[in-house]
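RECORD TYPE: inverse folding
INPUT: structure tokens
STRUCTURE:
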């Protein structure tokens, strides 16, 4: 078989590369597992990503939580020792992602309105201080992460429910909801 982008992933040498978005062959399997664990019929968005790692798969999933449980963000050493709770907000606080300098965490939370199914994005220092809101739930914001260029810029995906479009957004540490900027062109979907 000749090397092609779909099978040998030549673009993954320095970043994550999404493929098979919302149509990957493992999506039904993942959906079935989640349904089995929750006992609920859910719509699950599954986006696999190829990256600079030798084995395994990194995937981003999104599902509308009808009755989110209380989930807090914790950190620990790689061996599981020194576990400590970072958030004490209530609601569902999940999808934590460390900043490149390992000082901050960006994560999703619905703590202000746990029954709504809407999640906002927040920043917090690893020691639990510096809690800061980045988005206000106007849109569906998900997949929080950071740029890899050394600027510690938080970035995420945004779905505009009115248009069904997806965009990549960015903000700054200390910025207020509404001050984020759209990195991708409105004329096409970006994931």
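DESIGNED SEQUENCE:
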């Amino acid at each position: 078989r000749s090397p092609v982008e779909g099978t040998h992933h030549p673009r993954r040498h320095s970043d994550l590369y999404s493929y098979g978005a919302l149509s990957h062959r493992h999506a039904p399997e993942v959906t079935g597992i989640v349904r089995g664990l929750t006992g609920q019929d859910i719509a699950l968005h599954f986006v696999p990503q190829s990256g600079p790692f030798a084995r395994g798969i990194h995937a981003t999933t999104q599902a509308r939580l009808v009755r989110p449980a209380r989930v807090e963000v914790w950190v620990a050493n790689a061996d599981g020792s020194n576990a400590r709770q970072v958030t004490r907000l209530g609601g569902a606080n999940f999808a934590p992602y460390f900043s490149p300098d390992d000082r901050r965490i960006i994560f999703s939370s619905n703590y202000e309105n746990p029954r709504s199914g809407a999640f906002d994005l927040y920043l917090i220092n690893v020691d639990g201080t510096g809690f800061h809101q980045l988005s206000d739930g106007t849109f569906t914001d998900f997949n929080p992460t950071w740029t890899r260029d050394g600027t510690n810029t938080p970035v995420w995906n945004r779905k505009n429910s009115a248009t069904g479009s997806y965009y990549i957004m960015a903000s700054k540490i200390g910025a207020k909801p509404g001050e984020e900027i759209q990195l991708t062109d409105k004329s096409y979907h970006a994931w």
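NOTES: The first strand starts at residue 17 and ends at 18.
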